[in-house]
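stuck on this fold:
=====
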Amino acid sequence: MARAHASLKTTHSPDRVWALVGGFDNLPQWLPFIVESTLSEGGRLRTLKAADGNTIVERMQAFDEQARTCTYSIEQSPFPISSYLATVRVSADGQGSLVEWFGEFTPAGISEDEAHALFQGVYEGGMQDLAKALG
């Protein structure tokens, strides 16, 4: 099983950050790689259209508004992995926030190092994009 993790410290309040990243349908608002998100199954399934034309289908596994966490799995994607489970969490950090995005997954046809590098890049790039979206 491979893992990846990225974080962002920001001066914005946890409520402000969670308002942007906490919505299961909000990825297009802060992650340029995702250009469209469509919810189904009462908001528990999202179908994402990526900038490269690929489709990714993700299922919300757990959501806690008070703790500001969302855990989701990937049901369909072009990525060479299986058993993907990831969490986005926003917590208070001094006068600002700490945002964490972490996941674990099983490589399929690639090495653990390659799978780690793939999602490490996604998560780190996502944190950079989030910082830009927050201003």
Observations:
- The longest strand covers residues 81-93.
- The helical segments are 14-21, 27-30, 112-134.
